[in-house]
Amino acid sequence: MSVVGLHHVQIACPSGSEDDLRGFYGDLLGMPEIRKPPVLAARGGVWFEAGDRQLHCGVEADFRPARKAHPCFLVEDVDAVAKGVTSAGGEVWWDDSIPGVRRFHTDDPVGNRVELQQS
Questions:
Q1: Under CATH, domain 8-118 is a member of which superfamily?
Q2: Is the pTM of this model over 0.90?
Q3: How confident is the model over 78-113, as pLDDT tens digits?
Q4: Residue 1 above 90 pLDDT?
Q5: Most buried residue, 8, 37, 79, 84, by CB count within 10 Å?
Q6: What percent of the chain has pLDDT over 70?
Q7: Measured over all CA atoms, what is the biggest interatomic distance in the chain, rounded to whole angstroms?
Q8: Hey, where are the domains in the chain?
């Protein structure tokens, strides 16, 4: 038995934050929203496509933002994404600790750490 791939990553979010998350992941980062199955939609949260993988934002009653754990999304033009994040009022923290890798970190609207890396 072995793992053959990765289907999705789930991050936590507070109740009522779905529209803010749609603005960040959907509008700003360009990730298409995935319709949740009705039984799961009743729980709140929102899902997005990330290439051939998925990001699930799930409502957590005792929500605390993830400050260390984070998803990393591959982008075609990391500088353009960084400019979009700053233009939208977000902060960008460049990280050159991996030689040859252009990447930065930011926070989503609920405070979760997110990494963006040039593919």
A1: 2,3-Dihydroxybiphenyl 1,2-Dioxygenase, domain 1 (3.10.180.10)
A2: yes
A3: 999 999 999 999 999 999 999 999 999 999 999 999
A4: no
A5: 84
A6: 100
A7: 47
A8: 8-118
